[in-house]
Structures are given as structure tokens and as C-alpha cells.
Amino acid sequence: MARGQRKTLDEKIEAKQEIIDALLTRIDSERAELAELMEAKRLQELEKVSEMMEEYGLDPEEVVQALQQFMDQKQEEAS
User: Shortest CA distance to 24 belongs to which of 32, 40, 10, 39?
Assistant: First the structure.
């Protein structure tokens, strides 16, 4: 039974390069989608913090100060 014409080495190289190019395009697309998802998560988390600030009537400086005190206390406990 006859097989089809064999590919030349140049044709094989070209085919592999096309596959690699397609995969790189896919990777770029997936990275962009991942970045969008991470940004959406970050905004969602910031929204939660903002809601808490509003609920407790805190301004950003008070939150920063409270977090700094918390971190200072954690460092003292670790020492």
C-alpha cells in the first residue's frame, strides 16, 4: 500500500515552527486572560475593604494606621 509523499526536512521544520507560533499565541492569550482575572480579584478584594471602611466609618489614614499597629505587634511577637 502506497503512503503519501514524504515531507521534506524543510517542510517538517516549517510545520513545527507553525505549531510553536500557534502555541505562543495561545500562551499570550491565556496570560492576558489570567491578568484580567487577577485584576478582577484584586478589585473584588478592594471592594470588600472599602465596604468595611464605609460600614465602620473609617477613612484610609485610620485603616493604614490600624494595619501598621497590627504589623508592629506581629513583628514584636515574632521577636
Answer: 32
